Predict the structure.
Amino acid sequence: MAARRIDGRRLWDSLMALASIGATAKGGVCRLALTELDRQARDLVVRWASEAGMTVTIDKIGNVFMRRRGRNDSLPAVMTGSHIDTQPTGGKFDGNYGVLAGIEVVRTLNDLGIETEAPIEVAFWTNEEGSRFVPVMMGSGVFARAFTLAHAYAAADVEGKTVQGELERIGYIGTEEPGAHPVGAYFETHIEQGPVLEDHGKTIGVVTGVLGIRWYDCTVVGMEAHAGPTPMALRKDALQVATRLMQEVVSCARRHGPHGRGTVGMVQVHPNSRNVIPGRVKFSIDLRNASDALCEAMDADIRGTAARLAAESGLAIEIVPVSAYPAQPFHPDCIAAVAAAATALGYSQMPVVSGAGHDAVYLARLAPAGMIFIPCKDGISHNEIEDAQPDHVTAGCNVLMHAMLEMAGVVS
Amino acid sequence: MAARRIDGRRLWDSLMALASIGATAKGGVCRLALTELDRQARDLVVRWASEAGMTVTIDKIGNVFMRRRGRNDSLPAVMTGSHIDTQPTGGKFDGNYGVLAGIEVVRTLNDLGIETEAPIEVAFWTNEEGSRFVPVMMGSGVFARAFTLAHAYAAADVEGKTVQGELERIGYIGTEEPGAHPVGAYFETHIEQGPVLEDHGKTIGVVTGVLGIRWYDCTVVGMEAHAGPTPMALRKDALQVATRLMQEVVSCARRHGPHGRGTVGMVQVHPNSRNVIPGRVKFSIDLRNASDALCEAMDADIRGTAARLAAESGLAIEIVPVSAYPAQPFHPDCIAAVAAAATALGYSQMPVVSGAGHDAVYLARLAPAGMIFIPCKDGISHNEIEDAQPDHVTAGCNVLMHAMLEMAGVVS
């Protein structure tokens, strides 16, 4: 069993060929969802799938399913996939790796003459990045009925072009009802987009789940006054109160470890003048953790600290929720299959969580799901310098193949 | 002696008449330096001075000196003054009060038939506000040789119009060499522009000096990374380090009380995105205190904390001085004259410092100087809603008259 290996060179060559569509001067890829470049990339992947003997169906939101028959073809498919749209200054691996790893698995099964009990499918989901159209993870979101097809169709880019219109224009508006496609299990291979595997020197991240996310806008209102004539005791300095709450965002995440995350990414100071005590400070809060209960506990901590700071300072502090995603643990069977595959193949591994969203989050609502992470250089992603080592790319794909075979069953 | 009182109604009427030149809809004044409106205001004040029997000289930077003879007219004048230019959204009292209080003193001396030993002069200094041309306190700065006439002449507004050209255009470029004018003592009456007198319920602030100012730009450089996939322990969050230093700016000012002031007024976060850990934060630091030694001690504290935070976090912290003004204590004789006048007149009083710069700061380099503060509503200045009570306006002017008579000597 462990002797079955994918062709790492073929996979790498496919990645580089796909990355040439929308290639940027700095070595990245700019291929926004539903553009002409996206169409070219879709056509290439579909051609590869056809060449590998797969059949192709497209649903109404443009998700593409490429299928290799199983011996018992009425079983729900063991599916893998990801996305091939990129950020405006994206890299070669984000999303594309997960799709082409699936294609490579099928090519290898063909080469080795392996038949599976359940069918194998490789999917690419429309507009995962959300750079051109919101919401993000659009195709998998419609598929999982997180929001309606009509909502997605109506989404428009800055020029007013809609998702529906652009799907029609590039010829990827299918006939299948989104979500009608049965899924037996779902795996997604992805670069980590963080620094943990590299920091620990591990090849495979066995992803146990995706962090829940809470976004807020916080506003502290004090009183503008001249920096010179106003003694410290008579100030209502909005920034000084805001910075204490910003500190708490980080402290709170550390207290609720190991997966707690707290970030203030955006700050706006009014009037933002060198010699004026700030009268109003608005800032974003991003809280994440591995369970909804932990997210809730962090929410309570932040609100408690804000209430205490407001009482102490006499300044008004308002915290407004902006959006929230529940934590999504992956299925024990899928987690176990990934871990067992890595062990059988002799790769170093560790359990990790995903701090970012992926299509697998929505698929996990429909079927047992799991993810496989490989390291990316310096943890950098959503950047043209995003990079991954060929050995790691190969290893992740081998793990994917073994985990899928475990779930699909090999006809002996 | 204490029975000599100015005419508060006449002073108030003059203030309101001057405020009508450049009056704004919200009750303030917009009369930028060396504009047509400034010329109209200058002409009005000069006319009032002439009507009060004063002689007028103008120096090359447009400072105007209005003189009432003394019995011994060769003595250096006991001078008072301020400015009549305003902020774009300025109030009726800032500067204007100090000039018109001087005019009212002369009118009162005329009414009461009082002759002084030394001559009395009332000055208004060009471009104190610095809203249209930098540097601020331009006229008094050239007069005190803080910078050259050529430097001031070359200053241009956003349209490229220079101070020299605008002085010529409005007819206020004089022939006297700036600084050639002898000054025996200088007083300046001003609204406090802060909340201290109002907070203490006092009518007269006996100003003991002007705080020294240190301005810096501070930059903290970390590493941008995604808020989701990056665990707390692997972050280089520039904002979290910056906010600790921002806290220290305030703590440091409190430690170096009672006159220590520390303000972060301006903050710029990069890339300023909700789900990206800030990679770079730039912010301003404004430190003030009553002596240069205390300013120096605060500087050392901030730099020490920055060095400690840099060592602890591994992030680079750069602190660049932007500008500095030395602390300027006022002359004991002038401070005593103001305090004695307030006592003799029966006004409540307290010693205060000025946290903002005034023309008196430069004059104090040339002659014994002092200032008289009166409360302003809610400590608000540089704002169209700037306000002062008629009783306080009258009180400050009475104190000015008695202090000037003390220094000039009354011919009995």
